[in-house]
Amino acid sequence: MSFHRRALVLGGARSGKSRTAKQLAETAAPARLYIATAQAFDEEMRERIAHHRAERDGSWQTLEAPLELAGIIRETTSPERVVLVDCLTLWLSNLLLAERDAEREADGLVQAVREAAGPLILVSNEVGQGIVPATPLGRRFRDEQGRLNQRLAEACDAVVFVAAGCPVLLKPAPPLQLALS
Question: What architecture is domain 6-171?
């Protein structure tokens, strides 16, 4: 799978999307920046963060950006370095829990992605294929995430969907051909 200047890597939980994004980044440029959006509020999340860190070698720099993502993308993208953001699902959760204006923040993120000065890979969960969440906050999150993913897919040069560790290129896609009989 070839790398494009701006790529969105989607998938469900434990689908292999982070591993796929990391592999894409490692083929894109020798200088690499990992922008982490997770916040370690409990021991389980601290373990997850440690596991992700251990998967990256010394060629990676890491920057934490749980909320101020658009500005960080503007400041850090350059032609000489690939930037990997993992993940937008946690970023959106952080925004909603901080009672920030998710739509305004998404506008800023989409604009920053469009203006990225170098290779950029974004990781996000596809959350709309499961059950309808039982709470208003859960339904709002699912809807906001779906809208954000659609907007970023439009802004990116490539979209990859990962299921069971298998990446499928959604965009650019070959022309749709229907067999009519």
Answer: 3-Layer(aba) Sandwich (3.40)
